[in-house]
Each structure stands twice: as C-alpha cells, then as structure tokens.
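To: structure subgroup
Subject: Chain for Friday's discussion

All,

I'm putting the inputs and outputs inline so they're searchable in the archive.
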Amino acid sequence: MRQLPPQDTRPEDEPEYEKETWQPSWQCFCCHDSGRVVPHLARLVIPDYNYTRHKLKRCQNPGCTFGEYWDSEGLVESVDYRFTSDLCQELDLLEREDWKQFTPDSQSKVIERIIQVAKQKNMRRCGRNRDSTEDMIAIQQHDMVTNYDWGLKAETEEDQEFLKKCKVIYEES
C-alpha cells in the first residue's frame, strides 16, 4: 500500500515555524467591508460619536459597494450620508497606514493586555486559571452532562468518587 507522510495539525509547534502576522483582507479600510464607517474612524470626524445612539455613518469610499445595503428603504432613516467620498478616502488611507504600523510586537502587547484583563475579570475564588487537572475534570463533567444525560446523583461508585474529587478541588479553588 502507498505510504503517506503525517500532517501536523498545529504547525506552530514545529521548531522552524515562523509566525505569520495577520493582515486584514478588507477591500475598504474605511468600513472594513461592512458599509458603515468604523466607529473609531467616525470619532476622528465627530468626536462625540456613539454608534449605539447616533445614526450609522455610511461609507462612500469610491469603489466601495458595501454601503449599498444600508440604502434600503427600511434603513435609510437610520443612515448618515454626510461622510463624503473624499472624507471616506482619507479615513481609508489613515486606517491602511495604521495597519502597516501594526507590527508583531504590537500584536503581542495586545495579547498581553487581553491576558491581564482576563485575569482581573476571573470569577474563580482563587483568581487563577485552571491547571491541567482542573481542565480535565471540567471537560469530563461537561461530557457527562451533555452526552450521557448525567444528573445530579451519581449512579455508580466510580461516579461518586469522581464527584468527591471534584468537590475537593472546587472547595480548594
């Protein structure tokens, strides 16, 4: 039989792997291909802009067709057409330049910040992340509940022992 080489599912674990810097594939950087000017760009023109309260800013960047969706009869009352094609072009260029400046170093800083915020928002009593044993227990509990219609009562001795271990770990955390 013909032999095939194995294929790794996680190439980032390989020693020669070079991490690729993600770059957006948007055609229009003014609206990120949504047809609405991105809120942080809209705030450059309207400092007090709040996208949850104010009309959405329709992108009119030349060549951008994504805003056509917002021109429908039912939505036209919620759309602000004051962002001209020149303004949208300028915002597009600014956003493109920002993305060029976004280096892998910047990405790692963002990831670090996300981790810090996640730790602050951690709802566990001890304030730390699960270790591998706790992860395994959580997965097993989830599996029991979702796949086996496992209720609150442990039917077998093995399930009773497992529940005791879970309770001890839960009380320690």
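Points worth raising on Friday:
Residues 128 and 135 are 13 Å apart (CA to CA).
The mean pLDDT is 82.

D.
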